[in-house]
Amino acid sequence: MSQIFHPSMNTISRVSIFGALFFVLGTLGIVYGIFGSPYVTQVHVVRDQPVPFSHEHHVSALGLDCRYCHTSVENSSFAGIPPTETCMTCHSQIWTESPMLEPVRASLRNNEPIRWNRVHDLPDYVFFNHGIHINKGIGCTSCHGRVDKMPLMWKNEPLTMEWCLSCHRAPEKHIRPREDVFVMDWAPPAGKDQIALGKELLKQYDIPVHRLTDCYTCHR
Amino acid sequence: MGEFHTSDRQSPPPLPPLPKGGSYEGPHLAMGVAPSDIVRNSTENRTRRVNRGEPRSNCLCRPVPAVPRSAVTWISCLLLLLAGCSEQDMVTQPKILPYQESDFFADGRSARPVVPGTVARGHLRVDRAYYEGKVGDELIDTIPRKVTRDVLERGQQRYNIYCSPCHDRTGEGRGMIVQRGFPQPPTFHQDRLRDAPVGHFYNVITHGYGAMYSYAARVDPDDRWAIVAYIRALQLSQHATLDDVPSAKRDALKTEGSR
Asked: Which residue segment(s) compose the domain that B194 sits in?
């Protein structure tokens, strides 16, 4: 009676078992990698917009404050996308012939909103409020990056739950004085350590750090 | 796990009983043995198994049911989980978020234009002096809210955000947007505007003036009055004499000025 299995089957079976393990882990690794990559998170990927609006120009070169256009950011959950009137406040007088601005003029003419493409879109099961972040000393750049250096808008952070929690667990790493929230190039004052300053501000602004990681803080 | 070298086997153990109910039926997962072979000749099968030796549990070709019951359970569970995995439904819920597009209305807007004459709760504006800067048709000349240092600082902040792009931070009217071609607004530091009643500034912010658009949507009435107060402070700052400085501080001013 001949043997069914050749002795080499031992090696093959071992390789298969370990191979399967590596295959599974590898697949998981690849999936994790893909979901963390800009392909999925869209981090640093410029979104097409009907008008190639440059934050860099309007903020860095002209010195406009964030709130000139995003008027509701301080006291609303929503920062506010400026209505066409805000664009036309200046562009009714300057760059009035620019073909790039034609969609803006058309919007005013036809009383139709400009359809901007959303850059930062949280899942609908996340409750996010801009106002509370602004009023508790989280700077624009902490989440949006150096918008004043973005000729076209992109997302600077992945906005994953892991990322949100990294700050909700240790807000002292990011908090700054309220009056400096809109400063683009803010850094802790000379001789002051961010962590030390952060802990001071957490106390001063009465921030319940132990509650920041409760589920209902963001999921309601 | 032990290896099994069939050639080393000296004495084959007694033949194990066949599993009950002819469990060799059905598809077979073991390597190298086609199910049909097993079913066809069970005697040969027994022999084979003996030759492969013990322990049986290590035997790679041990006949197993095609899909064990536990696996069925697991797979069903996974499928059930997947069924709950229509994640997009949760990410994009059938609710309206600010400015979201909607196919419910013909114009695609979820945010509806307000019916003319609508008064939102808490926005009934009957105080004409406060909300229009007028009494009758006359512009008022007293700021209808208490002006404190906080109000002035708020006014300064709002002025710098909304007004300074054109009027610049001192009120001369040479802001950055003007430098880029916007018609230059008049300076605040002229008699006409120094003498203008505060209601005038409030009305200009509310309704716009000349090339200037209305800022009513961007600056609420409280802030408009704060800005008006700050404009008055700016005017004073550029049109003051030494006599306006409290006598106690005059010397300090002189030394600072000569520095």
From this structure: 128-249
